[in-house]
Specification:
alpha/beta, six-stranded mixed β-sheet, Rossmann fold, two-stranded antiparallel sheet
Length: 215
């Protein structure tokens, strides 16, 4: 069984630590950006830079591993599936730390060799935990869940470091997948403002996207 969820003080410590990492790696930028799904956003979060800072990456992966243990319990899934490309470093390290078999899901089917969407060994009935760095609308995670199910895997939960709160949780719920996140963008934006890492206007820009959820 999973252990109890983090206490308020533990959650606050995690929030502060992650925000320090985001600030150190310049992971959040404001401007006009196009997301992979074609949507335009006034801010962008790039967590791909974190593995380039070993100390920061170690802290993030430790937090993530503890969150998985706390909220899900390692006995409740058989394999970990990473989502390319941003989610691969995190998911691979988590699988290694928890001694779980690792697979990953291609966003497009490979048109040579075995022509599979899911790379790695998966057996019918395996309980698969999806892991990505962040979620926006949840479309990539939905496609990945369906791809794993097509291979015979069972997918009921997904875990991300950061939820941008733009409909991902709702989209996944519709296909029977519960979304877990270490942090939500609303609390991150408010903490970054409290730390003077972003200004009030920047915080409002980020929070305005939360209120504009779309599935």
């Amino acid at each position: 069984m999973p252990t109890s969820e983090f206490t308020f003080s533990e959650k606050e410590s995690i929030l502060m630590e992650i925000c320090r990492v985001l600030k150190k790696t310049n992971a959040i930028e404001l401007g006009t950006f196009k997301l992979s799904n074609g949507r335009i956003t006034p801010y962008y979060i790039d967590l791909r830079a974190i593995p380039s800072f070993p100390d920061a990456f170690v802290k993030v992966t430790e937090i993530f591993v503890n969150a998985v243990k706390s909220e899900i319990g390692i006995e409740n899934f058989d394999r970990i599936a990473g989502i390319p490309t941003a989610g691969l470093p995190l998911s691979a390290i988590v699988a290694y730390s928890l001694k779980k078999p690792f697979i990953y899901v291609r966003q497009k089917q490979k048109l040579k060799g075995r022509e599979r969407r899911v790379e790695g060994v998966i057996m019918p009935g395996d309980r698969v935990l999806l892991i990505d760095d962040l979620v926006t609308t949840g479309l990539s995670l939905k496609k990945s869940a369906l791809a794993v199910r097509a291979e015979g895997g069972l997918v009921s939960e997904a875990f991300v470091l950061l939820d941008r709160e733009e409909g991902g949780e709702e989209r996944l719920k519709k296909i029977g997948v519960k979304l877990h996140s270490v942090l939500k963008i609303r609390e991150v934006a408010e903490k970054l403002y409290e730390m003077n890492a972003i200004g009030e206007d920047e915080m409002k820009v980020i929070l305005s996207q939360v209120r504009a959820k779309k599935v």
